[in-house]
């Protein structure tokens, strides 16, 4: 019997490309693959269905969506907020680790139960809310585990609650990372940061595989810029791109594919009209992860910008 690998994410199947690619690669290599993901966002759940239709590996879902699992949404929220309050009152460094984990991951217990619900020979997972669950689920099964560090989790957030989240991430990582059979990271820079902080040696695994890529012909001569993500919101450096186009005085299109925060989309459109009137902003709805390469063919330049004030984004 081929080895059984359980792949875990605390996000949606369609919003965690690293674990999706992992599952595909392992399945293609002959492993028995079981993927665990969550359900809590309506549009992402619809995308999940499209993604899974094209794949043969087994899929389990931890559902805490308001519409389909209202009870779990409420109970997990109460547990999450209670654990965070305890961590704030006691301090992230002193609160019991079990409490800190539940203040960092809303559905930790549900993910652990899902992992342990069927036999596996190895457990591998990523995303912030899944790290501790991967380790705990593997322990229940009596097998080893690996972790994917797609971001530098102890310095990836901004705004209210980020200080507590970073402190809890550091507490969890310092306990778990040395116990993993192996670690992977989203880039060489992220791997180096983890190595310096915890004396571990993650292996960088890039977000893309080699592909045959050719753009469609640009018939009207307008420069076509392209950016995509899950959410269109602040802190992504998009204003810098718009201002640069305005300073150059070029006629161009800036295509943005994501679900917009309405007030931010309004701000961005007003900013463009003021500083880059010859630039046209064109908004697109999100699409299936399996179409991202195809959808990028029609543009001239891909944009990947971030706010350098956040350490993880610099890495």
Properties at a glance:
315 residues, alpha/beta, Rossmann fold, seven-stranded parallel beta sheet, four-stranded parallel beta sheet, 12 helices, 11 strands, 42% helix, globular
Describe it.
This protein folds into two domains: 4-204, Rossmann fold; 223-314, 3-Layer(aba) Sandwich (Rossmann fold), CATH 3.40.50.2000. The model has no long low-confidence stretch (mean pLDDT 93). It is an alpha/beta fold and 315 residues long. Helix 3 (70-90) packs across helix 4 and helix 4 crosses helix 7. The chain starts with a strand and ends with a helix. It has twelve helices and eleven strands. The strands form two sheets. A seven-stranded parallel β-sheet has the order 3-2-1-4-5-6-7, sandwiched between helices. Strands 10-9-8-11 form a four-stranded parallel β-sheet. It is 42% helix and 20% strand.
Brief characterization of the structure:
With 315 residues, the protein is α/β, with parallel strands linked by helices. It has helices at 17-28, 42-53, 70-90, 97-104, 108-116, 131-141, 162-176, 188-198, 238-248, 262-275, 292-296, 311-314, and strands at residues 4-9, 32-39, 58-63, 122-126, 144-149, 182-185, 203-204, 223-232, 252-260, 279-284, 301-302.
Q: How is the secondary structure organized here?
A:
Layout: E1 4-9, H1 17-28, E2 32-39, H2 42-53, E3 58-63, H3 70-90, H4 97-104, H5 108-116, E4 122-126, H6 131-141, E5 144-149, H7 162-176, E6 182-185, H8 188-198, E7 203-204, E8 223-232, H9 238-248, E9 252-260, H10 262-275, E10 279-284, H11 292-296, E11 301-302, H12 311-314
Helix pairs in contact: 3-4, 4-7, 5-6, 9-10
């Amino acid at each position: 019997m081929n080895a059984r690998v359980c792949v875990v994410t605390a996000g949606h199947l369609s919003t965690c490309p690293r674990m999706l690619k992992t599952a595909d690669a392992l399945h293609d290599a002959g492993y028995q693959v079981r993927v665990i993901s969550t359900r809590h966002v309506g549009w992402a759940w619809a995308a999940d269905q499209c993604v899974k239709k094209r794949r043969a590996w087994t899929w389990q879902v931890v559902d805490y969506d308001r519409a389909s699992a209202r009870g779990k949404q409420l109970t997990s929220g109460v547990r999450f907020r209670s654990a965070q309050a305890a961590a704030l009152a006691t301090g992230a460094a002193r609160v019991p680790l079990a409490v800190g984990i539940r203040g960092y991951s809303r559905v930790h217990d549900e993910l652990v139960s899902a992992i342990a619900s069927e036999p596996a020979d190895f457990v591998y997972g990523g995303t912030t809310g899944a790290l501790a669950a991967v380790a705990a689920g593997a322990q229940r099964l009596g097998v080893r585990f690996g972790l994917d560090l797609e971001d530098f989790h102890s310095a990836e957030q901004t705004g209210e609650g980020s200080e507590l989240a970073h402190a809890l991430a550091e507490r969890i990582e310092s306990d778990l990372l040395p116990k993993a059979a192996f670690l992977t990271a989203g880039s060489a820079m992220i791997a180096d940061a983890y190595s310096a902080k915890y004396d571990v040696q993650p292996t960088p695994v890039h977000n893309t595989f080699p592909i045959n890529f050719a753009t469609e012909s640009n018939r009207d001569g307008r420069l076509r810029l392209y950016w995509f993500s899950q959410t269109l919101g602040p802190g992504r450096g998009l204003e810098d791109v718009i201002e640069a186009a305005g300073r150059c005085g070029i006629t161009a299109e800036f295509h943005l594919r994501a679900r917009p925060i309405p007030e931010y989309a309004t701000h961005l459109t007003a900013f463009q009209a003021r500083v880059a009137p010859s630039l046209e902003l064109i908004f697109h709805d999100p699409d299936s992860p399996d179409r991202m390469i195809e959808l990028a063919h029609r543009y001239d330049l891909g944009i990947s910008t971030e706010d350098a004030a956040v350490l993880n984004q610099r890495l």
